TrEMBL record:
It comes from the Bacteria. It is found in: Cytoplasm. Belongs to the gluconeogenesis factor family. Gene3D superfamilies: CofD-like domains. PANTHER family: GLUCONEOGENESIS FACTOR-RELATED, UNCHARACTERIZED PROTEIN YVCK-RELATED. This is Putative gluconeogenesis factor. HAMAP family: Gluconeogen_factor (MF_00973).
Length: 333
């Protein structure tokens, strides 16, 4: 692997938004580290974590592919998901099964990722936020609580706060971060949060106490890429300022330095809300609210319309992220 000599960039999150940014960063001269959530309990990842003692592999799989230099044909095989009529294998991605198998063979997720990174020619570093699968908990504004990412999202209630815990059978009482992830945060020139689901992809990482503490202590610029669309069961009616306010509240103080927001209008007639049934409407801007939280706001047309959905244009976003590295804000203790 050729060592990149550019800025050390740490990207924290999960879901489908993260690979969009990572695949574009992969083309630049950046030393990339991805820290990936391990609280996913839905779909193929959820089934595997229930039957094999391994962190949910889906987000890790997608991130590794985004940073891989193998051929498109091999990527397609690794990403292939069995059809629903395939009974026992229904819905499982081949890459998820390989990660689970290697974790069992090598005695943990860390050696499995290291070995698979070599096989996939991954350029960069990929770390699970924790070496153990975590359980996401949420308290809603109506006073009720739920455990499990899938159940929390499906409840379609307003979330007040979230936290993560180890599984009840874990030897550790509270979640601990992978040490290499903490080291990457400490050495970073820039830390990127998102894009991704606020309560289920980004915050679960920050709610691991030592990761949250490391992000608060970092000298690096912390950049939040705000979602383009609100999400049912998570951020219905949230403005961009409310996204940032929620992050700050969970960590106990204002820590976001810069926010990237898309200003291009998403044509409602274009959106396929049946295909993307988790999204609701476009995030409303509140620039006054953002400035009140002391953040630098970078607003532009970051929109990419594709396949009936609204996505971030990876190239435009990464152009700004690299520009931020060249022109960081001055941070004070």
């Amino acid at each position: 692997m050729i060592k990149k000599t550019g800025p050390k960039i740490v990207v924290i999150g999960g879901g489908t938004g993260l690979p969009v940014i990572l695949s574009e960063l992969h083309k630049r001269n950046a030393d990339i580290t991805a820290i990936v959530t391990v609280a996913d309990d839905g779909g193929s990842s959820g089934i595997i974590r229930d039957y094999v003692n391994v962190v949910p592999p889906g987000d890790i799989r997608n991130v590794m592919v985004a940073l891989s230099d193998i051929s498109p044909q091999l990527k397609d095989i690794f990403q292939y998901r069995f059809k629903s009529e395939d009974k026992f294998l229904a819905g499982h991605a081949i890459g998820n099964l390989i990660i689970a198998a290697l974790s069992e063979m090598r005695g943990g997720i860390d050696p499995a990722i290291r070995e698979l990174s070599e096989m996939l020619q991954v350029e960069g570093h990929v770390y699970p936020a924790s070496a153990e699968p975590l359980v996401l908990h949420a308290k809603f504004t109506d006073g009720s609580s739920l455990a499990g990412e899938a159940e929390i999202t499906a409840a379609h209630k307003n979330i007040k706060e979230i936290w993560v815990e180890n599984n009840p059978w874990s030897e550790n009482k509270k979640p601990k971060a992978v040490p290499e992830a903490l080291q990457a945060i400490e050495n970073a020139d820039e830390i990127i949060l998102g894009p991704g689901s606020l309560f289920t992809s980004i915050l679960p990482n920050l709610m691991i106490e030592d990761i949250g503490r490391a992000v608060l202590k970092t000298k690096a610029e912390v950049v939040y890429i705000c979602n383009i669309m609100t999400q049912k069961g998570e951020t219905i009616d949230f403005t961009d300022a409310e996204h940032v306010r929620t992050l700050d509240k969970h960590l106990g103080r204002n820590f976001i330095d810069t926010v990237l927001v898309n200003t291009e209008v998403v044509p409602e007639s274009y959106m396929d809300f049946n295909r993307y049934d988790e999204v609701s409407k476009q995030v409303v801007h509140d620039f006054k609210g953002l400035r009140a939280q002391g953040v630098r706001v970078i607003s532009d047309n970051f929109l990419l319309l594709r396949d009936g959905g609204a996505f971030h244009n990876g190239k435009k976003v990464v152009d700004e992220l690299m520009n931020i590295c060249s022109n960081p804000i001055e941070k004070h203790d």
